[in-house]
## 1
Amino acid sequence: MRFVDEYRDPAAARALVRRIATLSNGKRFAFMEVCGGHTHTIYRHGIEHLLPDGVELVHGPGCPVCVIPMGRIDDAIAVAEQPGVLFTTFGDMMRVPGSSGSLLDAKARGADVRFVYSPLDALRLAVDNPGREVVFFAVGFETTAPSTAVTLRRAKAEGVSNFSVFCNHVTIVPPIKAILDSPDLRLDGFLGPGHVSTVIGQRPYRFVAEQYGKPLVTAGFEPLDILQAVEMLLVQCAAGRADVENQYTRCVVEEGNPRALAIMAEVFALRPHFEWRGLGFISQSALRLADAYADFDAERRFAVPGVRVADPKACQCGEVLKGVIKPWQCKVFGTACTPETPIGTCMVSSEGACAAYYNFGRLHREAALSVGARA
Amino acid sequence: MCLGIPGQVVELVDANNQLAKVEVAGVRRNINIGLLDDVAIEPGDWVLIHVGFAMAVIDEAEAARALEGLQLMGQAYRDEVALVRESRIA
Ligand code: SF4
């Protein structure tokens, strides 16, 4: 167990690894970690090499940067390049390739594109630059959407008329359902996302257990959290149970954050459908601004092309996001596609499976191969 | 971008806009605590911060744990901290 020594509590990690080995008892299990933060932890700490041969972790679609389709990047660039626009974005979105370059390329061509830490920083820029149209590129699951909602409420209350949001918020449950309905994949359970669940709580996952008969355990982001969640999943499997359980009780409560949910319900409306990179159109899987906030909707304020653009031929992000292939099985991984020159989205964000594997996972894999451990 | 960074509340600065000053990643910055409206947040409390908003109240041990995990992320965490330092929420 050569990777365990760097854990906060190596003895606890060893005990969990032994329990996992006993519980899995040589049988095969595939568990999907939905959240990109988990994918990062798994590769960063070589967790897949600690698990018995039969227990596989499959990476899921829970990286909001990774699932944005190319057409939306093109739309963002089209808005950013309109005269007078000051376009604001989280750092990760800057390098995501569209069909003719990224926002970073648009910036090099002269568009005013700036990083912000928070949507409230974007609002501040609007207040400070009344002569400019400040647009915020909103991405993220339910973790991030409430922040955009609070910002919009404040913009409305203060009448900041030069502020708008290009809304690309997505919701976590529809892609989980799409994956459960997909014939490509046989999964035995899920590691539920941590931060998203602080907002939505545990109830929205019940269908996974009740309708699909699969267990789900919401997990924290430490290596020990992941190991413990895998153990909890195996305990359920061994007992023939399928329940929704919570390993991350330090931050997640059953009912989530009702206040955040109420603010989201006021500011956003469900889109009838939304395109996900690699997963195609998923109904009711994304948010737009509610009609009461139409004045702040960049899609209504600016001419957005809204053209659907196919992913580049070489890109296999869709298969990675569905867990059908591992990052290193993509033909361009590490050659044409690297974090410096990403072809697909999964190589951009640190939560993307390809970037996490490129930066950390492959080193563990090489080390594991060299000591004859499981690769 | 989905990181949750622990910060310690220093003072409540703007009740109307629900802003609090926190010590986060070695600097003092304003964040919004309005999503935790049902909890009485006080100076000294630890919160998990995501894109300038407190998303959960945590204890000191959890804050230390979360920070340790973030520091192990390397560049991704350093990039996030650089953005936190530039944040000017008011
Ligand atoms: S290596 Fe690049 S193109 Fe291939 S799946 Fe990963 S991000 Fe997409």
## 2
Amino acid sequence: MPTWQLRLLRGRPGSSPRLETYRVELPAEAYLIDAVEKIWAEQDRSLLFRHACHHASCGACGVRVNGRERLMCITPLREFSPDGVIQVEPLRHFPWLGDLLVDVSPMMRRMAEVGFAIIRRDELTADRPLPEGIEQITRFEDCIECGLCLSACPVMAADEAYLGPATLAAIERMLAEPRGGDTARLLTLADDPHGAWRCHSAMECTAVCPSNVDPASAIGRLRRRLIVEKLRRWIGGGR
Amino acid sequence: MSYHVVVIGAGSTGAAVAHDLALRGFRVTVVERGEVASGTSGRNHCLLHSGGRYAMRDPESARECIEENMILRRIMPEALELNDGLFVALDEQDLSFKERFLAACEECGIPAREIPVKQALALEPHLNPHILAAVQVPDGVFEPFRFCLSFLATAKHNGATVLTYTEVVDFVFQGRTVVGVRVRDRRTGEERVIGGDIVVNAAGPWSGKIAAMAGVDVPVVPTAGVMISVGRRWNRMVINRLNMPGDGDIIVPQRRTAIIGTTSWRVEDPDFIPIPEDHVRLLLDRAERFIPGYTRGGIRGVFAVARPLVGRRGVAADGRELSRTFECFDHAVDGVEGFVTITGGKMTTARAMAEKAVDVVCAKLGLEIPCRTREVPLLSYRAFF
Ligand SMILES: Cc1cc2nc3c(=O)[nH]c(=O)nc-3n(C[C@H](O)[C@H](O)[C@H](O)COP(=O)(O)OP(=O)(O)OC[C@H]3O[C@@H](n4cnc5c(N)ncnc54)[C@H](O)[C@@H]3O)c2cc1C
Ligand code: SF4
Ligand code: FES
């Protein structure tokens, strides 16, 4: 069985973090989360990291792997060479709690402001009409609130109050299918110097998103919607 | 009332117990050594059981499932996908179970209806076209992390404290009565004592270890299972095999993915579960029989976790034979006061498990407070943060 070398960022707030190297034996079919969990189970019980689902659905295990935002649970070890080093660091632009752990509550509170979207149609119905009897079908929104896009976003680095790609994408999603929601409030939320206009289309969010959300395009659509709304109000002689 | 209850574990069981306690007016502290749902609850197959799976072999579990399934639909909308399930017969042997299955579902109160194969294939175009029968049931899919967070968010709103990254390392006794737990804050390394009138052990497959810390024996058998998710959602509904429960007989769709599971083997230490390669092969093989081409689109994740199955004391078992229902142990019978264990069961039945555990807590304290968790809707999981 191959031995993998992991270099993990370690430390606690208040002291400067350091990189520490661990060796862990696992088959090439295993994932990065298995390696980190094994280090915790067998080598160092003080290691802090977040995880729950191990299949890219809870959004808990986001980190930076060799500088790139990834979910540990779908990062296969076979991508790396046992001779090389896999460097794992916490996400950026979140309060750091120690080791690989960050506090995601600022993002979750922003998402809460938007509300909760469920997709009414499922994947298969996109190309086929639903037979009678299961029109109630719904499925989870794609965004798993992992925060990878926030960590990768250069605007986030410059503006702490920026709503961020995930939240803007969520607003766009709600506006596309409001189901009685308060669209005026959402438009106001997005139409803000720290909202949709702050994005400068670096596209990093879409590049790192593990869940097909494509926040960059969503922000583009949101801006167009905001412009259309403005024109409508202006033509209608509104405020 | 100012009784304080300490709950060990923030999986589905501990989360639901905390919610029930807070709703009945207790002061509550939840201690969890990792993230919420970092144990079994976060990593399971995500099937909101209709009970169909257990109808033939374990009707007690089946009845619990359908009852709880209907309750969760009312109280937990943000963590559930309500997409129904199909039990399909792949061969003659499966088919021979059909009448028995329909009768068992009826017996357990599970709304099940046979639909023509042609209609099933229209609904599920990727399903093996040679299926011989299909029965639709009210299965669903849950989001395990959000499931636990919803209970905890509501508990917090009602005054509970939730301490994550806080590990129980020992019990504190007065004579033969548990009066608290010693915990280690994993962020600071500091240890301290949290006092409680009652301590509830909801540590899932670790509940045996926790009970041992308090010097009592809980017959929990950590029984692992593997699941594999792929990069395409092949099915709308949950696809189950119409047969007795076995390995690799359910494909759960989730967002744009599908998950085949599970297997079943006994493990000693649930902290780290190496994945047996032959289980992976078996699952992929089985998946192929339901949905030819299952792995086209790539394998996305392979994971394993252990069930906290309740065994009979001293009886060995491989897992599938153990009942999936739950048990609440008042350790007064073992001579230890102030300590209760709630384990076994399913994620789907977490609320019912909590009701039972909190009834026991109330009885121990001589209180009569009705349970309200059937009616009270939960807050959004995001309210946890
Ligand atoms: C393979 C598999 C598939 C399954 N699929 C389904 C399904 O599809 N549908 C369904 O309804 N059920 C399913 N189940 C069952 C379900 O997952 C479990 O019954 C349920 O999650 C158990 O929850 P729990 O809260 O009791 O345990 P856990 O979720 O394990 O919670 C216990 C918690 O205690 C914590 N803990 C342990 N030791 C300590 C300590 N010393 N101090 C503090 N905290 C501690 C752990 O970190 C953990 O978070 C499945 C189980 C398995 C194994
Ligand atoms: S948009 Fe994508 S990257 Fe951003 S939080 Fe949602 S799932 Fe994660
Ligand atoms: S552990 Fe849930 S997304 Fe990785």
